[in-house]
Amino acid sequence: MDLELTNRVALVVGGKGYIGAAVADRLRAEGATVVVASRSAGDDPDSVAVDTADQASVDAAVARVLEQHGRIDALVVTAAPSAGTLDPAKRSDPEQVLTAIDGKALGFLRVANAVLPSQRAAGFGRVVVVSGQNAYLSGNITASLRNTAVSVIAKNLADEAAGTGVTVNVVNPGTVTNTPAAEVRPGGPGDSSPQQIADLVAFLVSPRSVVSGESISIAHRVLGQITI
Questions:
Q1: Is CB count within 10 Å lower at the N or C end of the chain?
Q2: Domains annotated on the chain, with CATH
Q3: How many Å apart are CA 123 and CA 133, to the nearest integer?
Q4: What is the DSSP string of 48-79?
Q5: What is the per-residue pLDDT across 206-216, written as a single tens digit (0 to 9) for each?
């Protein structure tokens, strides 16, 4: 299937990371012009420095991409502190919860708020944020809330953009590994690889996709859980 991404401009925030790099490679393979946003841009002309915790940094990075390329057809946000940086002993500590939400959910919101006006003006845009299946699980307030907040923000943004040609969606992996296991343990999600996540993201940012306002689990959604 031709995803019609040739010559589309995609901004991948966190594009040097484990998942982000796979997304950037996949979009390039589809013919898209990919700009990688990260804290350290380097000398690559197809990269831009950004700190998602700083609105001024976000605004400057988005303005630079728009100046160089004229548009941002697709925004993919994979940037967020790793779950491994969260202290399990502080899972209900308000300070850690606030820091985690800011680092993941509000970082996404800052970038989306900077990109969406140009997409609405163009009458086309695709926004995808990679979050996680901890949004469906209790037991760790920090992990649950930072991922749930991403889904709530994305749904609100999708509703605000309804009818404009802009879509907003969330992709929720479970464990991400280069060698996903076929089995799924009870009470847990399925495994997925960065490349499998990138395949799903590539479809969601394609003009062929009109899905919007969804939080989509990749691989198996938590085994044994029913949400109505």
A1: C
A2: 9-217 (3.40.50.720)
A3: 31
A4: EE--TT-HHHHHHHHHHHHHHHS--SEEEE--
A5: 999 999 999 99
Quick one: what percent of the chain has pLDDT higher than 90? 87
pLDDT for the residue 89: 86
80 is written with which tokens?
């967020």
45: which 2 tokens?
A: 């002309």
3-state secondary structure of 175: coil
Alpha-carbon separation of residue 82 from 68, 78, 103, 174, 186 (angstroms): 31, 11, 10, 13, 24
Hey, what long-range contacts does 79-82 have (CB within 8 A, 24 or more apart)?
A: 79/13, 79/14, 79/17, 79/20, 79/37, 79/38, 79/52, 79/107, 80/14, 80/104, 80/107, 80/108, 80/146
- Host H or E run for residue 114: helix 107-122
- The per-residue b/e assignment along 71-96, b for 16 or more CB within 10 angstroms, e otherwise, is ebbbbbbbbbeeeeebeeebbeeeeb
